[in-house]
Structure formats: structure tokens, C-alpha cells
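Propose amino acids for all 303 sites.
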């Protein structure tokens, strides 16, 4: 009978090298690996051509017991694309602008030492993953996706301004894109049509908070097996968006159709004309049709 290998566990870190930080990530990772009895970590950098998917697969191929996504929500999403449905946990070192998954998990996004301590020595929990299908292409997201106005904001955000002022650059893009025409949309939840009219945006959430700690989806939970859907259809005229804002602040509990909330395990969005499309803040081109479904508890998080 052969003895089991006693080789120490190894963590892989997938880091976006374009994120500038004022501390030594390698040193921090090595310190916590040694403190927890882990072996030498695996260091993998993302590229413009491959923002994390290939590196996550490489980490699994090299036998990593844990994969740390060190970057923004884009890096996190790419790593999750590979780890979802496996037993290998993901940890977060939030280095991005929004760090929305980390915030929704209750992490202090300024405490890098604490994040690494949780990654190497913390506890695990499972969260839902949402699979978004557009034609033959399937991608996952963890925080929020959308078609229409919210995706146009992501497409039109000034990257230089984002470097200087962070998430406030999204506000600038949002204001610039307030004028615009609604698109006729059909929204089906769990196979049943719930909306068939002109809208500006359909947003689908796996958790509730977005930039600036604004809560778009008040009832969303990362592990409830449900999608939260918000349909934005501002009334005509310059004051139309005020009704949307009131609907979000009132958490959709009024009869005003400027904002309508729904929940379900799956959603299909059909649009008369192509609209911008985003997944966790990454602009993913334009689409007229997208289907999304939740995979409950598909991803293990260590923190």
C-alpha cells in the first residue's frame, strides 16, 4: 500500500500586472504561505489577450489547491469562469476600481494583509454563479450584468479619468448618456413573459451593491439560488430619470413602472435592436438576445 503524498498545498495567484500597488504582492503572498504551512506559490500574470481564463486553467493543471484572483472584477470573473463547478476555492486580493464582489462579500478592500490572511488561512463558503449565453458563447458573472444604458456607461467610461478618480468616472459616463431612446424589449423569467415594452436598461444581479455602495438589488443574496432583475424605463421628458432614481431608492415598492423588480432562476432578454452588453463591468459588445441562468453554490470562496 503506497503512502499518500505529504507535499504541502500550493496557492496560485493570478495577477493583473497593470494594477499599480504600493506594496510587494509577492512578499505578502510568500509571508502568508509560509505562516500557514503552504508550499511555494505559483505566480501567473494576466495579459490583454488572456485576462485570466488561461491562467486559471494553468493553475489547476499545476495542482493548485487555491487560486487567488488579484485584480479587479474582470480578473475575478475570468478566474471564476474556470473554477465554477470545481472543488478548488477562489480567494480575492482586491486591486481594482470597483472590487464589487469583495465588497458584497463584506471584505475590507483596503486591507490587503487581511485579504491574504483570509485567502491562505480563512474559511470557505459557496456562492452562486450566473451563466450568460449569447448565441454559442457562454460566460459567467458574479455581480451584475446588463443590456442597454448600464452597459453603455461601461463602454463609454473614460479610462484616463477612471485612473484619476476611480468609480466616479462611471458617474461622468452615466450623465453623458442620460439622453437616449428606449428599445422595445421582451423579458422572460423562468419562461414567462413579464415585460414587453420600451426600456432603457435590463440589469440582472447576483448580489446587490454597485459602485459607491449604492444598492441596486435590495433583496439579492450571493447564495439564494435566484437572479434579481431590474427593468429601467424612465418616463418621457427631462425629469424621467428622477422617477428611476426614486424607484431605486424606494426599492421598487411603488406602483411606478419606471423601475420594476423581478426574481427567478433564469431570464431571457430579447431586444428589437442591438444594445450594449456588459458582464461585471466588462463591456462585451452588443446583443439582441441573451439568456442567463443561475448555478447555485457553484463557486467556493475562501476568505
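Proposal:
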Amino acid at each position: 500500500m503506497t503512502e499518500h503524498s505529504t507535499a504541502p498545498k500550493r496557492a496560485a495567484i493570478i495577477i493583473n500586472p497593470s494594477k499599480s500597488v504600493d506594496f510587494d504582492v509577492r512578499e505578502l503572498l510568500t509571508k502568508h504561505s509560509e505562516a500557514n504551512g503552504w508550499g511555494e506559490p505559483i505566480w501567473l500574470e494576466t495579459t490583454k489577450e488572456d485576462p485570466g481564463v488561461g491562467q486559471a486553467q494553468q493553475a489547476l493543471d499545476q495542482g493548485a489547491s487555491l487560486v487567488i484572483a488579484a485584480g479587479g472584477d474582470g480578473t475575478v470573473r475570468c478566474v471564476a469562469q474556470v473554477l465554477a463547478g470545481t472543488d478548488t476555492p477562489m480567494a480575492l486580493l482586491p486591486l481594482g476600481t470597483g472590487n464589487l464582489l469583495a465588497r458584497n462579500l463584506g471584505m475590507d478592500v483596503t486591507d490587503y494583509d487581511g485579504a491574504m490572511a483570509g485567502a491562505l488561512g480563512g474559511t470557505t463558503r459557496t456562492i452562486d454563479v450566473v451563466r450568460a449565453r449569447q448565441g454559442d458563447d457562454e460566460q459567467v458573472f458574479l455581480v451584475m450584468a446588463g443590456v442597454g444604458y448600464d452597459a453603455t456607461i461601461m463602454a463609454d467610461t473614460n479610462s484616463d479619468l477612471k485612473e484619476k478618480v476611480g468609480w466616479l468616472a462611471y458617474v461622468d459616463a452615466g450623465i453623458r448618456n442620460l439622453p437616449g431612446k428606449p428599445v422595445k424589449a421582451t423579458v422572460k423569467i423562468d419562461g414567462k413573459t413579464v415585460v414587453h415594452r420600451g426600456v432603457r436598461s435590463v440589469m440582472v444581479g447576483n448580489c446587490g451593491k454597485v459602485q459607491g455602495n449604492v444598492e441596486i438589488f435590495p433583496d439579492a443574496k450571493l447564495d439564494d439560488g435566484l437572479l434579481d432583475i431590474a427593468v429601467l424605463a424612465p418616463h418621457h421628458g427631462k425629469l424621467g430619470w428622477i422617477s428611476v432614481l426614486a424607484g431605486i431608492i424606494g426599492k421598487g415598492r411603488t406602483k411606478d413602472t419606471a423601475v420594476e423588480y423581478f426574481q427567478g432562476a433564469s431570464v431571457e432578454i430579447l431586444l428589437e435592436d442591438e444594445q450594449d452588453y456588459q458582464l461585471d463591468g466588462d463591456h462585451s459588445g452588443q446583443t439582441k438576445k441573451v439568456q442567463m441562468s443561475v448555478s447555485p453554490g457553484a463557486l467556493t470562496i475562501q476568505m
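The mean pLDDT is 89. Residues 126 and 232 are 30 Å apart (CA to CA).
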